[in-house]
User: Fold this.
Amino acid sequence: MARAVSMRRKLTMTVLVWVVALIMFFPILYTIITSLKTEGEAAAGFSMLPSFTFESYALVLDQQDYFRPFFNSVIISIGSTVLALLISIPAAWAMAFTPTPRTRDVLMWMLSTKMMPAAGVLVPMYLIFLNTGLLDTLLGLTIILTLVNLPIVVWMLYTYFKEIPVDILEAARMDGATLPKELVYVLLPMAVPGIASTLLLNVILAWNEAFWTLRLSTTNAAPLTAFIASFSSPQGQFLAKLSAASVLAILPILLLGWFSQKQLVRGLTFGAVK
Amino acid sequence: MRLLPLLSSVLVLALGSTAHAQTTLTIATVNNGDMVRMQGLTDDFTAENPDIQLQWVTLEENILRERVTTDIATKGGQFDVMTIGTYEVPIWAKNGWLLQLDNLGDAYDVDDLLPAIRGGLSADGKLYAAPFYGESSFIMYRTDLMDKAGLTMPDAPTWEFVADAARKMTDRSAEINGICLRGKAGWGENMAFLTAMSNSFGARWFDEAWKPQFDQPEWKNTLQFYVDLMKDAGPVGASSNGFNENLTLFQQGKCGMWIDATVAASFVTNAKESSVADKVGFALAPDTGMGKRGNWLWAWSLAVPAGSQKAEAAQKFISWATDKAYAELVASKEGWANVPPGTRTSLYENAEYQAAAPFAKMTLDSINAADPTAPTVKPVPYTGVQFVAIPEFAGMANTVGQLFSAALAGSTSVDDALAQAQQTADREMSAAGYY
Amino acid sequence: MATRQTHRLARLMMTPSVAALLLWMLVPLALTIWFSFQRYRLTNPAISGFAGFSNFSFFVTDPAFWPAILNTLLIAGGVLVLTAGLGIGLALMLDQPIFGQGIVRILMISPFFVMPPVAAVIWKHELMNPTWGVFASVSRFFGMEPVNWLGSFPLLSIILIVAWQWLPFATLILLTAMQSLSEEQKEAAEMDGANVFRRFWYIILPHLARAITVVILIQTIYLLGVYAEIQITTGGGPGFASTNLPFLIYNVGVLGGNIGAGAAGGLVAVVLANVVAIFLMRAVGRNLDA
Assistant:
């Protein structure tokens, strides 16, 4: 009897949750469907049945080089993530295990650096990039993305590290482990889920950053945000083509997110769990 | 004069290995159909000029404008050829930012350029940008709906006739709107249309002392007429419709009339895209009998930043992209209907083009009817038909465009919108030191 | 001895990120302050020189200034309420045993992976367009007039778009917190005969306090800077109905080419962000301790 009830309940919940999930996913799904329509169908109003033509994709790929911006996006998101992790792992470790009364202030201050609106400093930054030769280079974009996301990375790692039980550290210290050893053999293995999840989150944030990447690159370093900017409102009928370009721009990161969602979710707590 | 290039090529030759050094031109352009087509045809150029490579940066109009403006103002040197419009050219030329185009080659027929367009791209009689395509605006209307309403569209209608026809054609139950006009805010969107329209109502942006004129009755007449007309005969959500949205509406048969860029004519008559391709007629933009019509003048043009290291190659490219031979190239590959319009007299004298483009004559008449040097009924200190060629205009007109789109959406009254527009323009102009 | 050494090492380890961020904060800040006192028009080199406070007065007397402040707060507040509220709902759902949990979770978190310009384009052209958009088709199906979302409800539309992007993030954080609630606690409550609502109110919600705080803090940082969505969908209008502070700064400083006034606006935004931050820390910050 109890089993039957819980089975029914499970079925009801399943239907309910699926409906909600499909609503959340619908805009993306519909974009994919639209990208497989002809322009005429796309402009004709709601329909879930495309004629499954790939002509929009052919047009988009014919008009703009996709692979160079794609690789640029890959390089700058991964590069900036690695750089950010290298800088922030020691910092977060220090803040988590040798906290001082000022630790929280430092953290809050780091977050506050994100509050400067980018549009207010666009021209000064453009001049800096110009004069340092960083304009339109992958290095330049990697640096800026590192800086943009660094506060979040430090915070996320800090909150994760803080939950690692200190007793283990002390036990290791009793065994005579030195600090570097402590870091490499004891802490890192325990910290891996947190680092993995931070890494994924940062790759996503870097991939989707569309202000600086678009304005500080021209051709050599232009990532997918620039790719999509060449389609966002062309003359003429455009909905199917625009959808195809959109799908091409988000698909890589969507797939990464799907395949790694377990790892992403595991460490994504920001200290919310206590 | 020719000594320097000669000397430098001798020098380059002397250096041996660099003799065949490639020049790479980075070209910034908008993602409009004609430019995309040009990208596809560049093999023709690189075959003729094997030492020049082309690299394209194609961006959506607003982002392109932001990028090239930032770059040229900071002397960034990211672009060797820039696609800019008739608004930027006179301002940038005055700032000394553009290279004078005097090396387009002996074969380049500069006198063939349409006088109105050439005038808009020159400063002190010297050419600073070469037009790639030019446009004015005119009325596109549905001949079948006009017949149904029992009306005949004259070649040069008045606003009164247009408004009357629009109201008669409107049939909301059949999803037919009598008229589709731009409503989306932006100096190149609704303000291009409304500024041109206001010219035909006798209005102007500034008087001779640069005082804003939104508090004058002519502007009130313009805006009130527009808002009333759109309320009675315009589509739902007109305040967010720009060129693209209206194009799609018209192609789907949801507009009786549409006043917009002449380049749209080839889209609405293209049977592959448009469901009403065989039912479209054209007429000049309306007037009110004051001597000016409500049509604009625009040309997407190619220019080279001053101080460019690649000036010679850049001019070679511009010459290729804007000369008569390019039109023939496009015609041979994709037909005359796809040739970039509105820049050369010879195109409009070409019988093949006239046959392929039924709207050719009306386009030419519209372009000739616009005069950037005397755009308004009353005298003004500025040039530009649908814009005012001063650096402060774009920002100011964006804000005014927001206010007017709010009036269209009904969230403010026409009077409030005009009062706020006057205040906005006044503070901008006084901050910029005009008075 | 050991601790002093540890502290020194700790400071050393923090140096790279503190230095990098210090540079990242100070250089733009210094430049912004410098430019905010300069007369500098991007496309008019004839105007130059020291501006005094005129850039500040020009910016704060902009007719869009007060609407922009209000809209900035409304967008941030609206999205926070929506994402936290709906996020709790979604987290509760995902916490139930259902069929196909993995796929459901993938579908739900997908919006977070979509870059803001693409999200804006999707919502504007495919969902909210009053003629061929999906919402319009749904309205017509029910025999109603299509709603002109971006024209009639611009701010609400922006809030919906941004909330759609951030809901997955909120849901995930809340879900992780919810799953950390031990089974014994839940069962004990059930034994007590507490009904669903009491259980939610007295057990689950207090347990989520910390997670909600985290959601609020992190999202606020991003939400105060919403810009791409506005630029692409409404362009800040109609009127100033959807202009927020970052967009106004962009309009004045970049589109209008008034670098000085744009920089002054940037400083105003920093002040506003700090006011919000102080307010938030007072209101919810204590949840982070202990």
Remarks:
- The longest strand of chain B covers residues 130-142.
- Chain B touches chain C through 46 residues (CB under 8 Å).
- The two ends of chain B are 44 Å apart (CA to CA).
- Chain B has 19 helices and ten strands.
